[in-house]
Design brief:
Mean pLDDT: 82
Shape: elongated
């Protein structure tokens, strides 16, 4: 009954006959006839759209079985699509026929046909100045194809953005709301046009659009295409739009994180300034202010660390990312700031709060006390009988490792005799040998203490030779356990950086150690981390900074 009453009212058959008669308006007579009927046709298309926009694809096709034939013919008529808002209305009608969740082969084929028509309506060839595809009456008015379609796109984008934003504001009004299938179809229509600068406002509006559906209403092809274009720097989007993209499409977030790692692995690790710039430009630290994004990125970094067997350069990248995340987190408006527990839900919160304190936030006189506090809490957690699995242990270790600044400061404070040694030795022994049982860790601490005692007796000596450091160097080159070697290397490198006598023989000693052991990456990453911290903390030790820069310039290392 609905068909009997609705179709005659819309004169559907009349306009279908006209569309068949006109074809693609290749004759003068057909062109004249089209021009005489354009205003009435546009009114009919508008009425048709108003009729089908709330019906859904299945019901619309049931009421108008030949609607596809009509729209298809009109879409290929250059006079029709060139008139006023007819092209936009045709697209809206096509969107109403698009099935967001096709159930069979027929609906899949229909979706493919609709996509091809949408791409045709705004195909890229229109911007190439191809006069053969330019409407005759447009050319007669003196417009080029590029001018005409450029303005057409801008007007359509403005119209779509306005309607989507108004709908977002009036989302509770069911009669006025845009259906999920239409929004989905719009997003698909955008896919071949993603990189057009004029389309950016529409991309932003779509990414920030949230309808009433619990399911994602934007097509995955659209989200993937936007992410790909953003990563390749073919488009520029506001931060809010990028964050929304990653929140609503986790595959894009994962791809962005892996893309960042690929970028960082492909550049020379000459300074952490460049590493920090690349990480910050990716927008991932800023996006990580949302806990869901932070936890996913953190998991990807964690997996990368395990897959590379804990290489120092990956750990350094993670530490720089964590520092940039903390900067973004601290800059967040307090009203919208998430609690730390949202980012680290399964960790001891007092330990988390201590680790996130940046060294420059505290006076240097409180550093030793803070390091001891971290060590005491960590020891209580690790030696708790509830921490039994290696997985639990790794999670605790990874948390501490992300905030590596405090580990580097702990090693410095130990050699400067500015801290109670046992808690610091335990902290360093745990970091470098997390799998050790209590007895093994105690042995590691004893060996590290012996190295410290030897180095501290030489700390105030102004004239040293490599022979004076023979005992400490022997512990680096002669130790069998890799973690003990790394810990001893850390202590010895700090001694060379911060003692007046060690600075004079630093280059010779480091060269000697790295020539006969596999610690070159550990030494190099310690140097660039320390240089980066000094550059950003305001610590005044010009002699040490100069030495680090000289060592980094002469230290040749292929990462």
């Amino acid at each position: 009954m609905a068909q009997d009453t609705t179709v005659p009212k819309l004169n559907f058959e009349y306009w279908l006959d006209k569309a068949v008669e006109w074809g693609q308006a290749t004759t003068l007579e057909s062109q004249k006839d089209v021009c005489l009927h354009l205003a009435q046709l546009q009114e009919f298309l508008h009425q048709l759209y108003e009729t089908i926009k709330h019906l859904g694809p299945t019901v619309a096709i049931q009421q108008f079985p030949l609607i596809g034939q009509l729209l298809g013919r009109l879409c290929w008529n250059p006079f029709v699509i060139g008139y006023d808002e007819s092209q936009k209305t045709l697209m809206w009608c096509l969107c109403c026929l698009y099935s967001s969740e096709p159930q069979n082969a027929v609906e899949l084929k229909a979706n493919s046909w609709i996509r091809s028509l949408l791409c045709h309506l705004l195909s890229s060839s229109k911007w190439e100045g191809n006069e053969a595809e330019t409407s005759t009456f447009v050319s007669a008015l003196g417009y080029t194809s590029a001018d005409y379609y450029c303005h057409l796109v801008k007007n359509m984008v403005i119209s779509l953005v306005t309607e989507l934003r108004e709908n977002q504001c009036n989302g509770l009004n069911i009669q006025e709301s845009i259906s999920a299938s239409r929004v989905n179809a719009i997003s698909i229509f955008c896919v071949p046009l993603i990189t057009l600068p004029d389309l950016t406002p529409l991309l932003e509006t779509l990414l920030l659009y949230h309808g009433g559906s619990s399911k994602e209403i934007l097509s995955s092809e659209f989200l993937e295409a936007v992410n790909e274009a953003f990563l390749k720097k073919k488009i520029s989007l506001p931060e809010s739009a990028v964050f929304s993209l990653w929140l609503r499409h986790l595959q894009s977030l994962e791809k962005a994180t892996l893309h960042l790692l690929d970028q960082l692995f492909s550049i020379p690790l000459n300074s952490l300034e460049e590493v920090a710039r690349v990480i910050k430009d990716s927008l991932l630290p800023q996006a990580a202010s949302h806990p869901a994004i932070f936890r996913i990125v953190n998991d990807i970094f964690k997996n990368a660390l395990m897959e590379t067997d804990g290489t120092p350069e990956v750990m350094t990248i993670i530490q720089v990312f964590t520092q940039l995340f903390l900067q973004a987190y601290q800059n967040e408006n307090k009203q919208y700031k998430f609690p730390l527990k949202a980012y680290f839900p399964y960790h001891h919160q007092p330990l988390v709060r201590s680790l996130v304190r940046r060294p420059f936030e505290l006076s240097t006189t409180y550093w030793s006390q803070h390091v001891k506090h971290i060590s005491d809490m960590l020891k209580a957690i690790v030696e708790d009988t509830n921490v039994s699995s290696l997985t639990d242990l790794f999670e605790i270790w990874f948390l501490v490792a992300c905030f590596g600044e405090w580990l580097d400061i702990a090693a410095e404070q130990l050699l400067k005799a500015a801290v109670e040694p046992d808690p610091v030795l335990w902290l360093l022994a745990f970091y470098y040998c997390p799998k050790n049982e209590n007895q093994q860790r105690t042995q590691t601490m004893v060996e590290a203490q012996a190295v410290c005692d030897h180095l501290m007796t030489l700390f105030s000596c102004r004239d040293l030779s490599l022979k004076d450091l023979e005992a400490a160097v022997h512990r680096v080159t002669g130790v069998e356990q890799c973690c003990n070697q790394q810990l001893t290397t850390h202590l010895l490198t700090n001694f060379l950086l911060f003692s007046s006598g060690g600075q004079k023989i630093a280059q010779e000693c480091i060269h000697h150690i790295t020539e006969i052991t596999d610690t070159s990456k550990e030494v190099y990453n310690l140097l660039i981390r320390t240089a980066y911290r000094f550059n950003h903390s305001g610590e005044e030790n010009q002699r040490t900074v100069k030495l680090m820069n000289e060592l980094l310039q002469k230290f040749t290392l292929k990462v």
